[in-house]
Design brief:
By secondary structure, this protein is α/β, with parallel strands linked by helices. It contains six helices and six strands, in the order E-E-H-E-H-E-H-H-E-H-E-H.
């Protein structure tokens, strides 16, 4: 049996953007990402009117994610940029990503999150877990109705990001599918 997918959102689960802005959470480092998309060395040479985006990341999360028995995949508005900016800080290899294309940030009239249908399509019948801070019961109902394998929608509080309990829940879900490894 192939490993299940683990869809990773950045803002919220990996970067607790809703934490108190004046106090970086313990264990996190600050990454400053130029809003124009330029690399840091390029950014210094440019005259930018926009302040860099502050992103808090915990480098230990990469190690914990790699220990899980999943195939990791970005499911974030960062899309390919997650490999450029986020993966190196976390010590992750380049990961596949879901290309949200025209549905990026487009609200649906049925209240289902704009990512949900594309994640179900991307999984193509494979079991998956999705860590995000924006799923609802409507998304779980959509996955249950439209996905022929098991799907775990794991909500992460954007004030605190991924914690030990979250990694434990993800490992337990993978084990329940008959996969062999556990989180440490």
């Amino acid at each position: 049996m192939s490993r299940p997918l683990l869809f990773l959102d950045v803002d919220g689960p990996l970067s607790p953007y809703a934490a108190k802005p004046e106090k970086r959470p313990a264990g996190y480092t600050t990454l400053r990402v130029p809003q124009d998309g330029a690399a840091p060395e390029e950014h210094r040479a440019l005259s930018s009117r926009r302040r860099p985006l502050r992103v808090w990341l915990n480098p230990e999360h990469g190690r914990y994610l790699l220990r899980l028995d999943y195939e990791l995949c970005w499911a974030t508005t960062w899309m390919a940029d997650a490999n450029r900016w986020i993966a190196p800080v976390l010590g992750l290899p380049e990961l596949p990503f879901v290309d949200f294309g025209d549905v990026l940030l487009q609200d649906r009239p049925d209240g289902v999150h704009w990512k949900t249908a594309l994640l179900v399509d991307y999984a193509n019948g494979r079991p998956f877990a999705w860590v995000d801070d924006e799923q609802s019961d409507l998304d779980q109902a959509y996955v249950t109705t439209h996905h022929r394998a098991r799907g775990l929608l794991h909500h992460v509080n954007p004030r605190i990001g991924l914690r030990e309990d979250d990694f434990r829940a993800l490992a337990e879900f993978a084990r329940s599918l008959g996969t062999s490894q556990a989180a440490g």
